[in-house]
Structures
1.
Amino acid sequence: MKPVVQVKDLETTFFLKSGPFRAVNKISYEINKGETLGIVGESGCGKSVTSFSLMRLIERPGKVTGGQFLLNDQNILNLSDRQMEDVRGGKMAMIFQEPMTALNPVLTIGYQMDEQIQKHLKLNKKDARDRAIEMLQLVGIPSAKDRYEAYPHHLSGGMRQRAMIAMALSCNPQFLIADEPTTALDVTIQAQILELFQTLQEKMNMSVQFITHDLGVISEVSDKVMVMYGGHTCETGPTQDILNSPKHPYTGALIQSRPKMGHRVSRLKTIEGSVPAPHELPKGCPFANRCGNVLEQCWNNKPQLQPVNGATNRAVACFNPL
Amino acid sequence: MSDIILEAKSIRKYFPIKKGFFMREVGQVKAVEEINLAVRRGETLGLVGESGCGKSTLGRTLIRLYEPTSGEIKFDGSDFRNLSGAELRQKRRDIQMIFQDPYASLDTRMTVGQIIEQPFKIHGLLPDKKEREERVKELLQLVGLKASHVNRYPHEFSGGQRQRISIARAVALNPKLIICDEPVSALDVSIQAQVLNLLKDLQERLNLTYIFISHDLSVIEHVCDRIAVMYLGRIVEIATRDELFKNPKHPYTRALMSSIPSIGTGKKKMSKILSGEIPSPINPPKGCAFHPRCPHKIKECSEITPQLRGDSPQHLKACHVNLETNLKEIL
């Protein structure tokens, strides 16, 4: 069976006064039906820009400058803006980190849902309303009929995120992008949302791209992982393989720098320095200046993704892997 | 010198809710309720809980950034609650605070040198300019920055470096107690580890006592000697670190622990998650504040507010139910 999502050599560049800067550099991946890909990385690694590129939400001075994104064999990056309106919110949808800024504060939850449902499912007003209320119930919002009339500020953070999920799923998308959907929430609420997410994904058999900086969350929701740094892919593979035996020094350092419950150490391992500014990235491997395994060649040559021990589902971009 | 550096008795902090043209008081937010707490010299006491549980308010009330509504605070042998004027300023030298957001807690129009110099100016110490500059440079090096950074502005630094600047400012006057209010929550994972290590080094070198506020149990476990778990303005459980993590007794503590995603356990169905949300502190539930979400509640829970108590003073909990210790079931 063909993958639902195929991204090939995606490239997004921002044309800044100080010169062009490539935020996403030749990224490729595939997501099968019902599968979840987790994208991990720290701020500035390009994980959000990747998603915005797929949704065609990149604005000037940024531009998708190369590559392909096929959603069920339809090349999304070639669509006109008008055609894109039909796809966005319909076949593919996105959930954002901060539901308060993603929802319109002066319109009711119901109005915002109806608008989308009427457009994509071609329903009349009354049916759209029923569908919206049904979705609100599905995501576990109590007294959904009242909430339909509510404004975003009437809801708590967890409820707002549920409403966002209801909205994103209301038109049965084939592909869902979730950009740090639980980062702004408390842990007990996060657990509720993650569980809801998994149940719904199974029910609707969606392909999901789940973006987060939290390795714990990734471990619990995703089937496979892509680790990003400085706009490049460091490593890809099945989630548990990567978390249990990371190959890229960056992945290894990320895992070790996180305090683990039940495994107490006197000092945490750290990654020296901080993520360099875009124009300060090393010429070769973007991680070279912070890497513990750095070799001479890392400074001038960019490592390409290579299969790990001949495996077809695991690859790492490193000259001197762990 | 007593072993206890800070002692709080029955601390309450209510915020008035004002409405209408005349700003009449129509209610109160009960942010902190009946807190008793003792902090020992040299230890790190953790306050953990979800947003709205009152952990930050408690931290600020303890050093009187907020005036407590009632209660007593003893700090380093003095009646801190009733100090005023010069005496209060004198004592405040010994308590400092590090805030969560290093973007908001540093004045963008001051250079790093001016920021770190402020405490000396306010307290009239080191009047000699040369000496002060020397000390500022020393402090910068102490927190892992360069002395040459002294004339730069906060926006020229990354998040982790800015947090180092606020740490330098906090330790400038050789305080005895530092309240760290979510000091690493706004930082990336790899930077978090650097700042946590720095805080630990400074504690050893400067003999500091920390009150460490965080919502992240894994960070709390890493840095704290004793931990107080808060829910809706009250402490529900307090114990030494090892005791709390081996043998959590309050249902809320257990729920918190089990909702933390863990690495390498595989894609799994979350089990034992807590339903519902934190109730409003304006009108908290009667009895135990946790009872509407508690899976183990009994009749008393909705009537009588449980007090903090326990068999050993090392481990206290505020709960009517005695849970069996079966850790496998929890984690």
2.
Amino acid sequence: MHRINCPWCGERDEAEFQYQGDATKVRPKEDASEAKYFDYVYVRENPKGWHTEWWHHVGGCRQWVKVVRNTLTHEIHACGGPQDKLPVPRAAKGRR
Amino acid sequence: MKYSALSVLWQGLTGHKGWTRAWRDPEPKKEYDAIIIGGGGHGLATAYYLAKEHGITNVAVLEKGWIGGGNVGRNTTIVRSNYMLGPNTHFYEKSMQLWEGLEQDFNFNAMVSQRGVINLFHSDPQRDAFARRGNAMRMAGIDAELLDPAQLKQMVPILDFDNARFPIQGGLMQRRGGTVRHDAVAWGYARGADSRGVDIIQNCEVTNIRVEGDKVVGVDTNRGFIKGKKVGMAVAGHTSKIAQMAGINDLPVESHVLQAFVSEGVKPLIDTVVTFGAGHFYISQSDKGGLVYGGDLDGYNSYAQRGNLPMMEHVMAGGMAIMPAIGRVRMLRHWGGIMDMSFDGSPFICKTPIKNLYLNGGWCYGGFKATPASGWCFAHTIAQDRPHELNEAFTIERFKEGRMIDEKGVGPRPWIQ
């Protein structure tokens, strides 16, 4: 069970959240090229190890929470608000 | 050696001393005409059809663990071809046809059981959608049948037909669908490929794919460099990681965990496969009596091969809703497998931007049923250096070209595909 530390509500069970995918992707400008939009919509690094991602606290405050979580161990390193720059452990633990 | 009723009888009478091993354990050679990365169902099937259909026998299958230890041993053994969109319809029907002749073809008992697959519906709009799907299947020459509640009650009396939230109004049935003993599929293909000269090399992990210029030249492994004229990747679950070794960093794939469950053995309870899509639950019964069931993805990126409790609870709740009798059955074991979730729910069997490097992946949670056709089409793609018409739509480029094959119509959200 993941326990996600919502900046507004505190630590809550994963069941209160809806996963919303890779948070490293930034929406390109309106007039950006098709290639940039393709990258934004479809291309994912899909790391085996630390992953920065969105969880929507849909069963709580309904805010979007940014989470740094390990995709191999399910360990959560950091949680924050959408604008927060979260530290990603450098020694990519679990990466093979 | 050929397996037959007579060989079982003869071995029985002579103390079972004459059985030989089903496949060799060779040292890797320095060079192969084709290297397949991944000794799962799809990789082994690819090697089998490369040898059988295309006469390419100087082939190595490299497996980092052991044969049958990945997703081919981690699924719920269901086979079906009840797809609606053209490329999927024909591809999965090819697979269904290969399943039907598979045991005779590779001389191995894979316990192919065409016990039928039933998708339940609970409302008028859902019936319309299923009727449409059934019609699309029938127009492609595939069997499909719309069942009314009376027919269903006769076939699967154990269901809760008067469920208050999801009253059962009927089901779409494919009678030719069913289940197959999944481990035997890996073993059968391994044995068939090996007997035709393919080297199956276990405990051999690929650590790098060597590309010179615009061409692949071989792979580095924990057992040294192996040269390969052609290299195929069939590592669904880890496709991103393997492709990144060759410098392919732009795949529309995320890895997600899917759980499945088996109960203790009980007397015959359900002799077909029932899916309760509205409640994210499906179930069948194995020949040993265990109920085999599952539901949806856990719903977050994972390479962990194990899931979490909220999804377990959700699946059990779905089961209790539609089949309350299973509440008295104890769960025996559960496991998780890593799914290659593509961004439209459909797979890749295609060439890559690198010459002589081929991709097989993106199977989402539908890879098992596809095993024979996947191997068959991938072997064709590798041998001829062009796709067969059955897999020509399964490209990487389809996302750039706007030709997604989105069976569910949910868009680029792999965790709900």
